Amino acid sequence: SDAYCWICHCDGSGVCCELCPRLYHIKCLPQNPSSESWVCLECQKIIMAETLETRPLAMQSISVDTLCILLKYVLQRMKLPETKPFHQPVDCGAVPSYTDYVFHPMDFATIDKNIKKKFYGSPEAFVADFKWILHNCVVFNGKNHSLTTVAKTIVKMCCHEVNELLICPDCYLNSCIKDSDDWFCEPCRIPHTLVWAKMKGYPYWPAKVLREDNNGQVDVRFFGEHDRAWVPLNQVFLLSINPPSLVPKKTKGYDEAKVELIRHVQLLRFVFLFIHHYC
Ligand SMILES: [Zn+2]
Ligand SMILES: [Zn+2]
Ligand SMILES: [Zn+2]
């Protein structure tokens, strides 16, 4: 197993996970391991995400092939000039001591290969490999190294992208591909609630609901420009023929949004009537 603790990245003896090479100091764990055959929190998260009964709703209708396509897009979005130091494996010929410290090397190219091999059964398993990049970086370079700052950003970026993917895999994929201007009109497998949502300085505008938080805010994406925003619940109304207040002066943007909304509703009718008819 690894010689460095997964939580604090320092060495010293600890407990090993039954399923992975991660090591944990007892003092770094929130609870003492319950038994000899202990499965670490990181592995527990992955198991939950890959078990039929406990995996997130968004993932239930996704095939492994689709997941691979999605993860390829996530990786592509993260391949920025600033993440470049982690794109390729560390050259152990140039840094012979590397493997003395790093038990499980990880980098973007290896993750890319893993995606191709259909190694990831969930977005969580994919995120876990980016955490290895950070862990290895802290172990080898130290907590305050500039590369560690980059590695931390990488993990944050990855968590953000995966979170977006889990909100709606169809929206995520469509917004990455954007192979037609029509992508926003295509219904998602789990259709979004349609609403009128009002932002300060704007009229009520048609939008799709992506999620709600616990503080009375609704995350919406607007028809037309496809902007995202958190809108207070009391400014959000279920879609009706006319908006909750006076129709604004006609603007080009508003008319375009309405055209897109109508097209979306037509496609929704088509897709979901079709499904009802045959199932
Ligand atoms: Zn520790
Ligand atoms: Zn584990
Ligand atoms: Zn969607």
TrEMBL record:
Signal peptide interval: none
Keywords for the protein's UniProt record, in alphabetical order: Bromodomain, Metal-binding, Zinc, Zinc-finger
UniProt xrefs under SMART domains: BROMO, PWWP
SUPFAM superfamilies for this protein: Bromodomain, FYVE/PHD zinc finger, Tudor/PWWP/MBT
Ranges of residues in domain Bromo: 78-148
A Pfam family per the record: Bromodomain
Gene3D superfamilies to which the protein is assigned, alphabetical: 2.30.30.140, Bromodomain-like, Zinc/RING finger domain, C3HC4 (zinc finger)
PWWP domain span: 191-242
Domain of life: Eukaryota
KW Transferase (keyword) present: no
GO MF annotation terms: zinc ion binding
Family annotation (PANTHER family): PROTEIN KINASE C-BINDING PROTEIN 1 (PTHR46453), PROTEIN KINASE C-BINDING PROTEIN 1 ISOFORM X1 (PTHR46453:SF5)
Record protein name field: Protein kinase C binding protein 1, like
Organism: Helobdella robusta (Californian leech)
Organism placement in taxonomy: Eukaryota, Metazoa, Spiralia, Lophotrochozoa, Annelida
Gene expressing this chain: 20215702
